[in-house]
Amino acid sequence: MKNIIRTPETHPLTWRLRDDKQPVWLDEYRSKNGYEGARKALTGLSPDEIVNQVKDAGLKGRGGAGFSTGLKWSLMPKDESMNIRYLLCNADEMEPGTYKDRLLMEQLPHLLVEGMLISAFCAESLPWLHLPAWRIYRSGSKSAPRHCRSH
């Protein structure tokens, strides 16, 4: 099989993948513009501006229904009386026979963390990751947040 050349334009989710299928850890992820989107979003835009950009970009969820991510984010309540809110990433893939998200969670854990940071900022909440027990030891997703905190 010939090598596939992945670029941000042709493979926006997977261009950072390593050929050896090992996880892309923090230093390598950052060297490939990782967390640049989060930096720009969290330091230069309001949550509403980010939501509008996501709507304009036509970003869709990966759950199969093709629902607009920007629309979903815009429907979140803006109740100021809530002291703490949590954004939950339920990483339990329940579609029979599909592992479409597993590849990203195992090999690009920081992509997931970066997306959660931006999403949590828009929802004015704290990010929270839920992984099924069988996946925790197989995935880089458990240790990626720990690597971020150390930097």
From TrEMBL:
Q: Where is the NADH-ubiquinone oxidoreductase 51kDa subunit FMN-binding domain?
A: 54-121
* Keyword annotations from UniProtKB, A to Z: 4Fe-4S, Iron, Iron-sulfur, Metal-binding, Oxidoreductase, Translocase
One Pfam family name is Complex1_51K
Q: Which cofactor does it need?
A: FMN
Does the keyword Metal-binding belong to this entry?
yes
- An example Gene Ontology molecular-function term: oxidoreductase activity
Xref: InterPro entries:
Nuo51_FMN-bd, Nuo51_FMN-bd_sf
Name listed for the protein in its UniProt record = NADH-quinone oxidoreductase subunit F
Q: Whose protein is this, by species?
A: Escherichia coli ISC7
Q: What is the lineage of its organism?
A: Bacteria, Pseudomonadati, Pseudomonadota, Gammaproteobacteria, Enterobacterales
